[in-house]
Amino acid sequence: MLLGIAAYNYRNFDLIARQYSQCFITPKQETYSNRILQFRRNQTITMRKNRVCPVERARSLDLRIRRWFQNPQKILYPYINDGMTVLDLGCGPGFFSLDLARMVGKNGRVIASDLQDGMLQELQGKIEATEYAERIVLHKCEEDRIGIADRVDLVLAFYVIHEIPDKTRLFREIASILNPNGIVFISEPPFHVSGKAFRLTIQAALEAGLAEVPGERPRAMLSKTAVLRKA
Ligand SMILES: C[S@@+](CC[C@H](N)C(=O)[O-])C[C@H]1O[C@@H](n2cnc3c(N)ncnc32)[C@H](O)[C@@H]1O
Hints:
The chain is of the alpha/beta class. α8 crosses α9 (195-207). It is built from 9 helices and 7 strands; from the N terminus they run αααααβαβαββαβαββ. It folds into 2 domains: 2-49, no CATH class; 61-230, Vaccinia Virus protein VP39 (Rossmann fold, 3-Layer(aba) Sandwich). Bound molecules: S-adenosylmethionine.
Protein backbone atom coordinates (compact mmCIF):
# COMPACT_ATOMS: atom_id res chain seq x y z
CA MET A 1 0.00 0.00 0.00
CA LEU A 2 2.87 2.37 0.88
CA LEU A 3 4.43 1.59 -2.48
CA GLY A 4 1.09 2.42 -4.16
CA ILE A 5 0.84 5.79 -2.39
CA ALA A 6 4.46 6.60 -3.24
CA ALA A 7 3.92 5.69 -6.92
CA TYR A 8 0.72 7.79 -7.06
CA ASN A 9 2.43 10.80 -5.47
CA TYR A 10 5.48 10.42 -7.67
CA ARG A 11 3.24 10.41 -10.77
CA ASN A 12 1.43 13.58 -9.67
CA PHE A 13 4.67 15.28 -8.70
CA ASP A 14 6.17 14.33 -12.05
CA LEU A 15 3.18 15.79 -13.94
CA ILE A 16 3.17 19.05 -11.93
CA ALA A 17 6.95 19.40 -12.24
CA ARG A 18 6.77 18.96 -16.01
CA GLN A 19 3.94 21.51 -16.41
CA TYR A 20 5.74 23.97 -14.14
CA SER A 21 9.13 23.61 -15.77
CA GLN A 22 7.66 24.30 -19.23
CA CYS A 23 7.05 27.94 -18.16
CA PHE A 24 10.77 28.60 -17.78
CA ILE A 25 12.56 26.55 -20.43
CA THR A 26 14.81 27.85 -23.20
CA PRO A 27 14.42 26.61 -26.85
CA LYS A 28 17.40 24.27 -26.40
CA GLN A 29 15.88 22.81 -23.26
CA GLU A 30 12.56 22.55 -25.07
CA THR A 31 14.05 20.28 -27.74
CA TYR A 32 15.59 18.17 -25.00
CA SER A 33 12.33 17.95 -23.04
CA ASN A 34 10.40 17.07 -26.24
CA ARG A 35 12.85 14.24 -26.87
CA ILE A 36 12.27 12.92 -23.35
CA LEU A 37 8.50 13.11 -23.86
CA GLN A 38 8.79 11.28 -27.19
CA PHE A 39 11.00 8.64 -25.56
CA ARG A 40 8.40 8.11 -22.81
CA ARG A 41 5.58 7.86 -25.37
CA ASN A 42 7.53 5.24 -27.35
CA GLN A 43 8.21 3.32 -24.14
CA THR A 44 4.49 3.28 -23.30
CA ILE A 45 3.61 2.05 -26.81
CA THR A 46 6.26 -0.71 -26.57
CA MET A 47 4.96 -1.76 -23.13
CA ARG A 48 1.40 -1.95 -24.47
CA LYS A 49 2.51 -4.10 -27.41
CA ASN A 50 4.73 -6.39 -25.30
CA ARG A 51 2.26 -7.17 -22.62
CA VAL A 52 3.87 -10.55 -22.00
CA CYS A 53 6.29 -10.75 -19.06
CA PRO A 54 9.75 -11.15 -20.63
CA VAL A 55 11.91 -14.19 -19.95
CA GLU A 56 14.61 -11.87 -18.50
CA ARG A 57 12.25 -11.34 -15.55
CA ALA A 58 11.97 -15.07 -14.83
CA ARG A 59 14.42 -14.89 -11.92
CA SER A 60 12.47 -12.10 -10.22
CA LEU A 61 9.33 -14.27 -10.29
CA ASP A 62 11.19 -17.06 -8.58
CA LEU A 63 12.82 -15.23 -5.67
CA ARG A 64 12.82 -17.01 -2.33
CA ILE A 65 11.49 -13.87 -0.63
CA ARG A 66 8.27 -14.26 -2.66
CA ARG A 67 7.43 -17.32 -0.59
CA TRP A 68 7.11 -15.08 2.47
CA PHE A 69 4.08 -13.30 1.07
CA GLN A 70 2.83 -15.74 -1.61
CA ASN A 71 3.49 -19.20 -0.23
CA PRO A 72 2.01 -21.57 -2.86
CA GLN A 73 1.07 -24.28 -0.34
CA LYS A 74 -0.65 -21.85 2.04
CA ILE A 75 -2.60 -20.23 -0.79
CA LEU A 76 -3.63 -23.40 -2.59
CA TYR A 77 -4.01 -26.17 0.01
CA PRO A 78 -7.85 -25.81 0.30
CA TYR A 79 -8.23 -26.60 -3.41
CA ILE A 80 -5.82 -29.46 -4.00
CA ASN A 81 -6.09 -33.15 -3.23
CA ASP A 82 -3.82 -36.09 -3.80
CA GLY A 83 -4.01 -37.47 -7.34
CA MET A 84 -5.40 -34.34 -9.00
CA THR A 85 -4.45 -33.13 -12.45
CA VAL A 86 -3.61 -29.43 -12.31
CA LEU A 87 -2.96 -26.98 -15.13
CA ASP A 88 -0.50 -24.23 -14.16
CA LEU A 89 -1.40 -21.77 -16.91
CA GLY A 90 1.34 -19.22 -17.63
CA CYS A 91 3.63 -21.11 -15.29
CA GLY A 92 6.64 -18.87 -15.98
CA PRO A 93 9.77 -20.32 -14.33
CA GLY A 94 7.55 -22.56 -12.19
CA PHE A 95 7.26 -20.72 -8.89
CA PHE A 96 3.98 -22.58 -8.28
CA SER A 97 4.59 -25.73 -10.38
CA LEU A 98 6.95 -27.50 -7.97
CA ASP A 99 4.72 -26.95 -4.94
CA LEU A 100 1.74 -28.07 -6.98
CA ALA A 101 3.65 -31.26 -7.86
CA ARG A 102 4.31 -31.89 -4.15
CA MET A 103 0.67 -31.30 -3.31
CA VAL A 104 -0.85 -33.61 -5.93
CA GLY A 105 1.50 -36.39 -4.87
CA LYS A 106 2.86 -39.33 -6.84
CA ASN A 107 -0.50 -40.12 -8.42
CA GLY A 108 -1.18 -36.60 -9.56
CA ARG A 109 0.07 -34.53 -12.48
CA VAL A 110 0.88 -30.91 -13.16
CA ILE A 111 0.69 -29.56 -16.69
CA ALA A 112 2.96 -26.53 -16.65
CA SER A 113 2.02 -24.47 -19.67
CA ASP A 114 3.54 -21.27 -21.00
CA LEU A 115 3.69 -19.23 -24.17
CA GLN A 116 7.45 -18.74 -24.00
CA ASP A 117 10.05 -21.45 -24.54
CA GLY A 118 12.48 -19.56 -22.32
CA MET A 119 10.15 -19.85 -19.31
CA LEU A 120 9.63 -23.57 -19.91
CA GLN A 121 13.40 -24.06 -20.21
CA GLU A 122 13.89 -22.40 -16.80
CA LEU A 123 11.42 -24.85 -15.29
CA GLN A 124 12.93 -27.80 -17.14
CA GLY A 125 16.31 -26.90 -15.59
CA LYS A 126 14.77 -27.02 -12.13
CA ILE A 127 12.99 -30.36 -12.43
CA GLU A 128 15.34 -32.52 -14.48
CA ALA A 129 16.87 -35.33 -12.45
CA THR A 130 14.34 -34.75 -9.65
CA GLU A 131 11.33 -36.82 -8.61
CA TYR A 132 9.13 -34.07 -10.08
CA ALA A 133 10.32 -34.64 -13.64
CA GLU A 134 7.70 -37.38 -14.03
CA ARG A 135 4.91 -35.46 -12.36
CA ILE A 136 5.33 -32.17 -14.24
CA VAL A 137 4.55 -32.16 -17.95
CA LEU A 138 5.78 -29.09 -19.81
CA HIS A 139 3.47 -27.74 -22.47
CA LYS A 140 3.95 -24.83 -24.84
CA CYS A 141 0.70 -23.05 -25.66
CA GLU A 142 -0.30 -20.46 -28.25
CA GLU A 143 -1.24 -16.89 -27.40
CA ASP A 144 -4.91 -17.66 -28.07
CA ARG A 145 -5.02 -21.40 -27.45
CA ILE A 146 -3.94 -23.58 -24.55
CA GLY A 147 -4.27 -26.69 -26.70
CA ILE A 148 -4.20 -29.58 -24.22
CA ALA A 149 -6.26 -32.71 -24.72
CA ASP A 150 -6.40 -33.66 -21.02
CA ARG A 151 -9.18 -32.95 -18.58
CA VAL A 152 -8.06 -31.12 -15.45
CA ASP A 153 -9.33 -30.70 -11.88
CA LEU A 154 -7.80 -27.31 -11.21
CA VAL A 155 -6.56 -24.47 -13.38
CA LEU A 156 -4.18 -22.07 -11.66
CA ALA A 157 -3.94 -18.76 -13.50
CA PHE A 158 -1.58 -16.69 -11.36
CA TYR A 159 -0.57 -13.26 -12.69
CA VAL A 160 -1.28 -14.29 -16.28
CA ILE A 161 -4.84 -13.41 -17.38
CA HIS A 162 -4.01 -9.71 -17.91
CA GLU A 163 -1.36 -10.80 -20.44
CA ILE A 164 -3.90 -12.70 -22.56
CA PRO A 165 -5.70 -10.60 -25.20
CA ASP A 166 -8.92 -12.60 -25.72
CA LYS A 167 -10.09 -13.52 -22.24
CA THR A 168 -13.54 -14.80 -23.24
CA ARG A 169 -11.98 -17.27 -25.66
CA LEU A 170 -9.50 -18.38 -23.01
CA PHE A 171 -12.21 -18.98 -20.40
CA ARG A 172 -14.31 -20.94 -22.91
CA GLU A 173 -11.36 -23.24 -23.51
CA ILE A 174 -10.76 -23.54 -19.77
CA ALA A 175 -14.42 -24.45 -19.21
CA SER A 176 -14.13 -27.13 -21.92
CA ILE A 177 -11.16 -28.88 -20.27
CA LEU A 178 -12.40 -28.69 -16.66
CA ASN A 179 -13.72 -31.83 -15.00
CA PRO A 180 -17.14 -31.54 -13.36
CA ASN A 181 -16.55 -29.69 -10.04
CA GLY A 182 -13.24 -28.49 -11.42
CA ILE A 183 -11.92 -25.19 -10.09
CA VAL A 184 -10.25 -22.15 -11.62
CA PHE A 185 -8.09 -20.13 -9.27
CA ILE A 186 -7.35 -16.65 -10.60
CA SER A 187 -4.91 -14.17 -9.16
CA GLU A 188 -4.00 -10.86 -10.76
CA PRO A 189 -1.38 -8.32 -9.70
CA PRO A 190 -3.11 -5.30 -8.08
CA PHE A 191 -0.66 -2.72 -9.49
CA HIS A 192 -1.17 -3.80 -13.11
CA VAL A 193 -4.85 -4.68 -12.92
CA SER A 194 -7.41 -2.15 -11.71
CA GLY A 195 -10.58 -3.13 -9.84
CA LYS A 196 -12.59 -2.45 -12.99
CA ALA A 197 -10.28 -4.56 -15.19
CA PHE A 198 -10.51 -7.40 -12.66
CA ARG A 199 -14.32 -7.22 -12.64
CA LEU A 200 -14.30 -7.37 -16.46
CA THR A 201 -12.09 -10.46 -16.30
CA ILE A 202 -14.53 -12.18 -13.95
CA GLN A 203 -17.40 -11.08 -16.22
CA ALA A 204 -15.65 -12.72 -19.19
CA ALA A 205 -15.27 -15.92 -17.16
CA LEU A 206 -18.97 -15.94 -16.23
CA GLU A 207 -19.98 -15.39 -19.86
CA ALA A 208 -17.81 -18.33 -20.87
CA GLY A 209 -19.74 -20.73 -18.62
CA LEU A 210 -17.90 -20.50 -15.30
CA ALA A 211 -19.56 -19.56 -12.02
CA GLU A 212 -18.24 -17.83 -8.92
CA VAL A 213 -18.05 -19.93 -5.77
CA PRO A 214 -20.16 -17.90 -3.31
CA GLY A 215 -18.16 -16.36 -0.48
CA GLU A 216 -14.89 -17.74 -1.79
CA ARG A 217 -12.30 -14.93 -1.92
CA PRO A 218 -8.97 -16.51 -1.08
CA ARG A 219 -6.44 -14.25 0.56
CA ALA A 220 -3.08 -13.88 -1.08
CA MET A 221 -0.93 -10.82 -0.58
CA LEU A 222 -0.39 -8.54 -3.59
CA SER A 223 -3.25 -10.26 -5.36
CA LYS A 224 -6.74 -9.76 -6.61
CA THR A 225 -8.18 -13.27 -6.42
CA ALA A 226 -11.25 -15.24 -7.42
CA VAL A 227 -12.26 -18.89 -7.39
CA LEU A 228 -14.61 -20.13 -10.10
CA ARG A 229 -16.29 -23.43 -10.89
CA LYS A 230 -17.85 -24.92 -13.96
CA ALA A 231 -21.44 -23.64 -13.99
C1 LIG B 1 3.90 -12.57 -14.81
S1 LIG B 1 4.31 -14.18 -15.38
C2 LIG B 1 3.65 -15.18 -14.06
C3 LIG B 1 4.31 -16.52 -13.97
C4 LIG B 1 3.79 -17.43 -12.84
N1 LIG B 1 2.39 -17.74 -12.98
C5 LIG B 1 4.07 -16.82 -11.50
O1 LIG B 1 3.12 -16.37 -10.84
O2 LIG B 1 5.25 -16.79 -11.12
C6 LIG B 1 3.16 -14.47 -16.71
C7 LIG B 1 3.51 -15.68 -17.52
O3 LIG B 1 2.41 -15.94 -18.39
C8 LIG B 1 2.92 -16.31 -19.65
N2 LIG B 1 1.90 -16.03 -20.68
C9 LIG B 1 1.57 -14.85 -21.23
N3 LIG B 1 0.58 -15.00 -22.15
C10 LIG B 1 0.29 -16.31 -22.16
C11 LIG B 1 -0.64 -17.10 -22.89
N4 LIG B 1 -1.46 -16.57 -23.82
N5 LIG B 1 -0.69 -18.43 -22.65
C12 LIG B 1 0.13 -18.97 -21.72
N6 LIG B 1 1.04 -18.29 -21.01
C13 LIG B 1 1.12 -16.98 -21.22
C14 LIG B 1 4.19 -15.51 -19.80
O4 LIG B 1 5.05 -16.10 -20.74
C15 LIG B 1 4.74 -15.53 -18.38
O5 LIG B 1 5.58 -16.62 -18.18
